[in-house]
Specification:
This protein has 473 residues and is an alpha/beta fold. Helix content is 31%, strand content 17%. The chain is built from 15 helices and 18 strands. The protein has an 8-stranded parallel beta barrel. It has a 6-stranded antiparallel beta sheet with strand order 11-12-13-18-15-16. Helix 7 packs parallel to helix 8 and helix 14 packs parallel to helix 15. The longest helix is centred in the N-terminal third of the chain and has 21 residues. The protein is globular.
């Protein structure tokens, strides 16, 4: 080919590239989140399993026997705290922390065998439940074999020594160095191993914000190539949602609710979380909301300690407000003790009203599309009431013809919720038309009774009480 012909071809390529660039408007709106959450996460509730304390035996086999009960509770995704062997060097307590991982591709003998895990997952799947593993990518135990085989994969302090994560009392672990490509490949392949070989449906990733974002983005692509997974990050970072995680932690809602319940704060203490969800986080992102988890329970107190007389209202808010709700094991039994973290301390199982409450809330969530998660759910819109400092009222609504964040059609759906976050009974009116209509009260004593709410209606609320209404017409 002559030089003239080559030049003409190159000019044509340049012209075509320019035309394509001009046609693609860089300011045209695009879907911010570039991952598609699995369809089974649409109306899911997460249930956290602390295997060590979940049953007297503390094994996967014993936990497996509880799967039908969890299915009846109405949960969908089971989060297993780390199931790996625990480090012995610098171990805390008698049994150590499950977040001090000695082998990323093995099962802790305390819990059982790899076959026991596979069987647990298979039985869960047969019941329509999904299973995600807790994954500790930021650090390992001091005596993980990687320390000897790949010492370059670990960070060093100013003395040249391995070191725990800075500023925390995590003396039983040492920090990885994600500047090492070999570590990244090993960690990604270890995660893929559990998806391929054990049928795991995703991961809850410990201190995910301490691990580079580009690593998580690459891992998500690798895992989705095996099967659709669900990813939950222990972090409160907007950027984790775009290419890696469906869900991040809504820590600030728990903290704000504690301020309201026990420190006399107004409901404005909740505004930070809800404002960030509306204005900072990408539309369609999921935020994990909870009234207890392993950290809160062991180190700060049970939900009864954290929320006092407002505990039931806090639970209901976590299911009706914006976020993907979570139940920590034992909450359905009204567990009041702080479960020891480094020792055997089984949950004391008993019948408790909170079990029925959780079942009702899970059923309500499944039946009310406005309460669905992420791209399927409706925005939470605060509505005016006559006691705005002590009463929180909001509407979540899909109007007829609504479409989800993935382009699919949604059924019309509307929910009105009113919470009295004060120690006195209150009667409030709701002045805005958004809140008006004919409703039923699915969590009330007469769930099939229709009642009209308009600007003159007084909604009666007991101290620390709530009313939840689903729209009829």
């Amino acid at each position: 080919m002559s030089l003239r012909r080559i030049a003409m071809v190159l000019l044509g390529v340049v012209a075509l590239a320019g035309a394509l660039t001009a046609a693609a408007d860089p300011f045209a709106p695009q879907r911010e989140i570039r991952i598609t959450p699995p369809a089974w996460s649409r109306d899911a509730t997460i249930y956290q399993v602390n295997l060590r304390q979940f049953t007297p035996e503390g094994t996967l086999r014993a936990a497996e026997a509880q799967l039908p009960r969890l299915k009846d509770l109405g949960v969908d995704i089971l989060w297993l705290m780390p199931i790996h062997p625990i480090g012995e060097k610098h171990r805390k307590g008698t049994l150590g922390s499950p977040y001090s991982v000695r082998d990323y591709r093995a099962v802790n003998p305390e819990f059982g065998t790899f076959e026991d895990l596979k069987r647990f997952v298979e039985r869960a799947h047969a019941l329509g439940l999904k299973v995600i593993l807790d994954w500790v990518a930021n650090h390992s135990a001091w005596d993980n074999p990687l320390v000897a085989s790949h010492p370059e994969w670990y960070e060093r302090d100013w003395k040249g020594d391995f070191h725990p994560t800075s500023w925390w009392d995590w003396s039983d672990i040492i920090e990885f160095d994600y500047g090492q490509a070999g570590l990244r490949r090993y960690m990604a392949e270890s995660m893929a191993f559990w998806v391929r070989e054990a049928g795991i449906d995703g991961f809850r990733c410990d201190v995910a914000g301490y691990v580079p974002l580009d690593f998580w983005n690459a891992v998500r692509r690798k895992l989705d190539a095996i099967k659709p997974v669900f990813m939950l990050a222990e972090a409160a970072s907007r950027d984790l949602h775009y290419e890696a995680f469906e869900a991040t932690y809504g820590w600030s809602l728990h903290n704000g609710m504690h301020e309201v319940a026990l420190k006399g704060a107004s409901v404005d203490a909740l505004a930070g979380y809800y404002s960030e969800q509306d204005n900072l986080f990408p539309r369609g992102s999921m935020r994990l909301v909870f009234t207890s988890n392993h950290d809160k329970n062991s180190w700060e107190g049970s939900e009864f300690e954290m929320f006092g007389p407002a505990v039931e209202a806090a639970i209901v808010l976590s299911f009706t407000g914006d976020g993907i709700p979570m139940i920590y094991n034992g909450q359905e039994a009204g567990n009041t003790k702080r479960l020891q973290f480094f020792e055997k301390d089984p949950i004391e199982w008993r019948e408790h009203p909170h079990a029925a409450l959780f079942r009702s809330l899970n059923a309500l969530k499944a039946a009310t599309p406005a309460l669905w998660n992420g791209p399927w759910g409706a925005r939470m819109v605060r509505t005016a009431n006559s006691s705005p400092q002590r009463v929180l009222s909001f509407v979540r609504e899909h109007k007829p013809g609504a479409r989800d964040g993935l382009g699919g059609a949604l059924p019309a759906s509307k929910l009105l919720a009113v919470f009295n976050f004060s120690p006195e009974p209150r009667r409030v009116t709701l002045s805005e038309a958004l809140a008006h209509g004919v409703y039923r009260e699915p969590l009330g004593s007469q769930p099939d009774l229709e009642r009209r709410i308009d600007g003159a209606t007084e909604v009666e609320l007991p101290a620390w009480g709530y009313r939840v209404f689903t729209f009829r017409r």
